[in-house]
Amino acid sequence: MSIEKHGSFLQRGNMPVAMTPAELDLPVDPGNSSVDQTYLLPSRSRFKILNARKNKIGHFQVDSYVDLDGIGGRFTAQNVISQSTITLSNWQIAQLERQGRFIPEEGKRPGKTVDTDAALDDVRRAAARRRMGYVQAIIRESDDGASVPSKPVMLRAAEKYAESIGERRSPSYATLKKYLAVYFANPFARLLALAPGITRGNTIKDFSIAFEQLVALSVEVSFKEGGGWRKAEEIFHGYLADPEHEAVRREASDEHGNLIYPSPRTWQYRRAAVDPFTRDCWVLGHDIATRNHGIRFPQMLPDAPLDVVEMDYTVLDIIVFDDRFQFVYGKPWIGLMRDRKTGVVLGFTIFFGDPSFENFVHLLRTAISPKDLSAYPDIPNDNIYGWPLVIVIDCEPHLVSNHMVSLCEELGIQLRPMRPGEPNMKGGVERHFGVLQGRTVHTLPGTLRNPARRKDVSEEKELGLPKLTMKELEGYLHGFVYNYHRESHKGMGFLRTLPDVPLRLWKDGIAEAKPRRPIDHTILAERQGLVHYAVIRNGCFVVEHITYHHESLVVVGTAPTTKWRETGVETTKYKVIRDASDLGHAFVVVPELNITVEVFAINADKQYASGLRLFQHRKAMAEWKRRTKAPLKKVSDLEPTLGSYASDLKALYLQRKKQRTADDYLSFYASMGKRTHRSQVINVAHSAAASSQRMDYHDPLKAPPVMTPSPNDPTHDPSDTPVAPHARDEHGRLVPSDPLLEETAKHKNRKGKRQPTPRTESHPVTTGTFEDPDDIQSLIDRYSGDDE
User: Fold this and answer.
1) Is the Cβ–Cβ distance between 38 and 141 less than 8 Å?
2) Does an H or E element contain 313, and which?
3) For the ranges 6-10, 82-86, 267-271, 302-306, which has the lowest average pLDDT?
4) Rounded CA gap, 476 and 378, in Å?
5) Rounded (to 5) percent helix, strand, coil in the chain
């Protein structure tokens, strides 16, 4: 562990060295340097050149200077480290000087030096100004204003300047000569050269390299295991017990063999010298340290919605299983597209396994097309979709592949890949994922909110992970997006420090979006590469056990060019393009007619294949093969076989019931429906007649209930009231009867000794006091145990 100050590698003396001219980004000479002023760089003089980002330096020495006719002078310099040579014109040196990248190497200065004049503190700047005053006073006394005068003239000029600034004595003659020598030898930064050097302060005991490495290792382990300087000292003493560290042990001991080095104060200094980034690297890992201490700067907002759209993927800490067959998918991946101008979510996709080009196409389809929320009636449809002009992507292999580039070029979409390891370039979508995980997934029952504790959970046991169906997860994401669009978020206002609501920004700015052109959605299906070759028979063909048909295929299958099971002739196969987002339809290419026919699954397979995605179908076939060990003939066989798979998920359901995940989702949907209904704007009538009635705030449009007039009301008509209440007899007819009086008689009998209720051998005893004879279901339930 080095005891240098934190960030000392940023100083010029510690910068990485450039070995070749290509690393320095030298400006290209235009070729008319013959009219430029010549620089005075003597032979064997040295200089440094910084690269364009000023984080790498090259050390050079001048070999020669040649003045060529027509193109001007050229300096030839050699890299003192790699021995490579470069040529520099006067124009190139001027450009490097203007950019602050050309630093001549001048006389050495005592003590620790400062790289630039602007880095001088007030004390050293004042001392440099004082010395500069003596030098200028002496030069003014010379004959030509540029040479050194005689000794009496120098002393006389120094005394006059000392008297003018209020000093009792002027510097000695030797000191004045030193000031003058430094002044003339350092024309690059004279004030910086005249400034006093920085003393190194108190010296400390120098330890060997092995000793320093062992101390650095002890400090690192103390941070990882948790503890203070005493923990580091304990670890260090443990290392010294090893025979291989005998030399270090002798260095840390006194003449009596007692361990006295490093001292407690040294351990405290060494631990305090560890910067926060290194500490987080040791404790949390490099990725988290980079994210915590990386550069964060706001991105410029586009001019209109859909100009720039960000997309990314993340994994949710939940387990998803199939709605129909109940087999487990695993942890889901979520793909998201977010508009940078307004912050709205254009679309999302759910998939399992590593991200692929197929998942991106499905995500793009959901972003550019209207959403169908008919399966979730409690969630209103905001109709947010659109065609992006620029998509900001990561450097995932499938996102920078040739397929991706060719698809976006054909669709007219510009791709903007971000540099690897810089998620801050897509800060909006990264923050959206953080809100999604923190507010939804990590708040579900059974999850571990503490990231440190989640690391201790075994993925095999899947502890602390809620279990959801595919439909529940999709509906919950739709609900989260609905709420997110109506909440105020930072960085969306007129000023980047002010918050705003994404839905309001979208409605106010969508009219300014660039107009879009219609596209052929068949392109999205074809570019996924899901191509098969199938034989058409009786207007049908089968692909992965799903049968497709269309009346046009009858014509295609009976064409003269179509060959079917003829001896010595190969059967004709047609190119079939399936849509991985919806296996309910496909496209058949007919080369003879130069057309594409869209076909659909037959009625027997339609219910299964409609809206089915490719990964769901292949997962179902894999589960069939795992359970039956037999090939699948038709998809209708999946229902009875995989439907029984729920019996193997008893533990899963018990844990899901314990976590109350389904109940929470049901409550979520119910509250969202009430919230949406109550937030509707109702045009209330202001007439006297309408305002005289009481309004139900839960359902303002419902008609008020009909109230029964009171007998004391003067407008009450007694003839409307029946003389006696009626009830149905055993034949179903209405007869005058008062059930209340009958019940009263029964209650009177209960005051005395309780009479047992008679029972028969064929019918059980009933316990109800009043039953409706017309309730057929109750009769069925009562006599369902009879033998007849």
Assistant:
1) no
2) strand 308-315
3) 6-10
4) 11
5) 40, 15, 45
